[in-house]
Amino acid sequence: MRLPYPLLCTLLGIGLGAIPRLIHGPIHEKFDVLYIKGAVAVWAWYVARSTIGFLVGITRWPERWWLRGPMCGAIMLVPLCFVSLATPGCGPPCSALNLSTALAVGTLVAAIAFVMTGKHHL
Fold first, then answer.
1. Following DSSP, what letter does each residue of the chain receive, concatenated?
2. 59-111: pLDDT as tens digits
3. Which residues of 14-50 are buried (b: 16+ CB within 10 A; e: fewer)?
4. Of 54, 72, 77, 84, whose CB neighbour count within 10 A is largest?
5. What angle do CA 92, 39, 104 make, to 5 degrees?
C-alpha cells in the first residue's frame, strides 16, 4: 500500500520539521524578556517548519522537486524571519539559521518523496 504523495510529504515534514527545534530553537526566553509569552510565541516557528512538507505535497509549481522543496521552505519561514530580525538578542544570525533549516527541510522532504515515489509532484 502506497501513501498518497501529499500525505507522504506531510508526514515527512512533521518529522523533519521537528529536528531544527532540537538544534537551534527559537527559545522562549528571548520573547519572555520582552513581556511576550515566549512559550506560546515559539510555536509559530515550530508549526511553520512542520507544515513545510504539507506545502511541498500540495504544490505543483515549480515542477521539479529540487526547486519546489526549498521554495516551500522559504515561503513558510520568511515571514517569521522578519520577526527574528526584529527580536533583540536574535537578529540576522537567528534569521539566517531559521531560513537555512527551512530550506533544508523543504529540500529533504521533496527529495525523499521523489526517491520513494519517483514523482516530482502530485
1. -PPPHHHHHHHHHHHHHTHHHHHT---THHHHTTTS-HHHHTHHHHHHHHTHHHHHHH--SSSSHHHHHHHHHHHHHHHHHHHHHHSTTTHHHHHHHHHHHHHHHHHHHHHHHHHHH--S--
2. 999 999 999 999 999 999 999 999 999 998 889 999 999 999 999 999 999 99
3. bebbeebbeeebbebebbeeeeeebeebbeebeebbb
4. 72
5. 45
